[in-house]
Amino acid sequence: MNNPSGDVASTSRRIVTLEQFIVDTFTLIGEDGVERPVEQPDQIGGGGTYAIIGARIFTPPSELGMIIDYTPATLTKAIRDDLKYYGSDMWAFRERTDGHPTARAVNRYQGQSRGFEYLTKPLLLTPHSLSATPFADPLPSTIHFISYPAPRAEIILSEVKELRDQKERNPIIVWEPEDESLEVMQKIAKDIDVIGPNHNEVIRLFQPHIPPEVTPKELQTIYAELCLRIAQFRPKIGVVIRCGCLGCCYAATPTTPHNQDRRPDVKWVPAYWNPQREGWSEGKVVDPTGAGNAFMGGLAAAVDRGYLLDEAVIWGSVAASFTIEQNGLPVLTTKEGKELWNDEDPSDRVQIMKRDLGWNES
Question: Is residue 165, in this structure, part of any structural domain at all?
């Protein structure tokens, strides 16, 4: 066990996302360039929602938190009840008083690419937004946020530092740097515990040359090099690049005095659902929406408990694996006192991945 920011008593842990709840809609851009609506109902959405559910797969609801800003006319009771099913004490419902409805967005899919656009005015959250919610005191043990729309990261970190000094508590920061600049990333990296961009983000940030007929192996080489470049900014725990169906590559920041200057090792973990997995051909992969965010939530659950990045990326991979098996969020049930997700125990998938990686379980 290792937690560079681990000054939080286990009895008062809480993972909180600073992302807003969104009602998702979907369109598909065809080969003719025409955008068409997808025939499916409005869906629970938002990167924060998927992240906190990713953490929920491994964590009781009493140790989680997310604010739901809404209006009764624009968020149905059915959706509110669906959220509460995962645990009522992990949500702080607040009626919006700024004249705007519950946030809505459109997800535009074109091949393997996804675009995102708000359809209504978002209500962006910061650590001060937690005041007057159950998540304000004590300060969360782990804070997750996404830098969209940027600039946002420096504002959030300045408030974290202010609250940290007031409350004498140092939360772990798990950051998805979407839309943020490379200059900002380099500037703040040492104040972040885990930096977790996806493959599209690192391509945007570094703009490497990618051959027109690139192979998966060549892509892995490119992503690994970019992971190393971010790792050289020295976040407290490390860097993870989420690479979709290729899995993830990651690099832990050396922490002991004798290896502070050592070049970090970049490692790969395959996605749980991959062509070698039994069941792959049975249509297990349905919708990738939110899988990367769920990955970061699962990872956050692991680092919040003090696990190393090697373990955390497995938790993240398992959280993502449940997320892609249906449209929307995975299904939670209970059997003989044990929580099941899509009728499976997440810990079983963790052990399967460790076995695949050749880990010797003691």
Answer: yes
